[in-house]
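Re: export button greyed out
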Amino acid sequence: MDTMTTLNGIFCEVFDEDSIQITRETTADDVDGWDSLSHTNLIVAVEMAFNVRFNLKDTRTLKDVGELIDLIDRKLAEKA
Amino acid sequence: MVMKGQYNIGHICTRQQCEAGRSEKVAMRWISQHMEQTDYTFTQLDQQTNRFANVLGSLGFGPGDIFFTFLPKMPEQFFAFLGTLKLQVIAGTLFSNFGEEALLDRLGDSKARGIITKKSFLKKIGRIRDQLPNLRYVIVVDIEEHQSDDILSYSRLMQEASDRFTAPATSADTPSVLHYTSGSTGKPKGVQHVHGSILSQDMTAREILQLSEDDVYWCTADQGWVTGTSYGIIGPWSIGVTQVHFGGGYNAEHWFDILQREKISVWYSAPTALRMLLKEEPELFARCDLSNLRHIFSVGEPLNPEVIHWARRTLDRDIYDTWFQTETGAIMIANRPGIEVRPGSMGKPAPGIEAAIIADDGSPVPDGEQGNLCVKPGWPSMFVTYLNNPEVYGQKFRGGYYYSGDTAYRDADGYFWFMGRSDDVINTAGHLVSPFEVESALLEIPEIAESGVIGAPDELLFEKVVAYIALHDNCEYSPQLELKIRLHVSNKASTIATPQEIFVIDKIPKNKSGKIMRRVLKARYLGTDAGDISTMEED
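Workaround output, generated via the alternate export path:
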């Protein structure tokens, strides 16, 4: 499963909405309920699903889903 | 402001403004999350709210029925809210981040007959619908066709409704707005206001926020919050002020772009947002032209002096902190232009408001000493009851005063200084969270045997939600369980209620009658003395 597909499942779980379809351009303004507090839930869920660890600065400056995917892929590459 | 005895909030904020010659004036400049702009004149606001009043009328709603909005900030929120009030239907508002338990508590207690929402929130409502026998209609803003007899398309209904409607003559004591607020025990309570509250909201918008007809005003509060209705809808529109509303969340660049581009002259925001701005790079502010910005106000939780100093240094402005509650409906105590700002203080009482510091035994407390922050009843926006809970309402009034639940002191010059809550309610980012609600949500997780929840100091949020849990014998704490807890509380209660820190302990301290001793947990968290623990249950 690619990063985008796994991430889409995480979004559905975290935001409790099955119909979410993320793209690289998706931002917090496009997903109902994606605020600073649920962002923490999202990051915890992503760390767990991909078995990676982010630092706070990385996750605070993310502008869209594309940047999150790039961050995940970078962390996975560092592990490999 | 009130003409011919017509107190109807929906009428005063729309039709009356048109009759006063503001028909073509922009009432609302809507800025979407993608920074697209749409203007609505007072005529359009009047027509849209008329249509919505007719929609509800055609569905059989009438005076005294209860209808809720459950939407993020969007134009339909404002049309539905004012249209509901025009028909003398009680307008309740719900935060869009509420989970299903929070919805069930509020919709169930109020016996709401209808709700307007978005398609993405239907799932939450669907899960609890069978427990809400009174909920007759769900109106959905983003479906084109009716989904069934009771899940209806907003756009279809609005197309079919007339844009003409005359609000019935409405007396000051007619029920109007309903907000639910959390207490330290039990379920949230429905705070009922009346149409006459507009007198307080109008007066404080003029006297405290110093709004006048030529202002361009921006209130960042969500409409689920009393600030979002009293000062994001009612007060400013009662004066005919142009309001800017933004559909996006916190984004420093967008916010300052809006302040500059829209020439905002009065801005009302919250300490958490202002503290977030304080952390941004100073260059962001340096390149903005804020020459139109006359005043900045804040509400929600105490504003730290360093934020005021930052604003003086960086924005060359004071920030005026204000204090009120869901129950008071309008600003009671405030800093404002014309009165020296004492950083960290709540300011002085609004005109006509008599505030006092009173001891638990009802005696007045001398200046400089802490006590219960109380207000003499009689202001027009005072709540008239807790829905279905008159007993608790009665308990809020003693010796001729309303007890706010906050503690404070007054200095020799008449400034009030917030000290804390007299109960266990947590104030996180301006939202009151009931520890009981979070504890209840935590106990629904099979691994958790006991739970105790407290508020702990937080630099950004003022207070954060901290959970102590005891697990069942055969269960272990793990990152998976942490995520499960986070998502469960977020989706059942709300993201605001989600614990920021979780501690596993062997046993939650309780007194001999089984009541959670949250002060013991708080002392444990802060590393301070727990005081008298003689009543604590022993193993």
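DSSP finds 17 helices and 27 strands in chain B. The button fix ships in the next patch.
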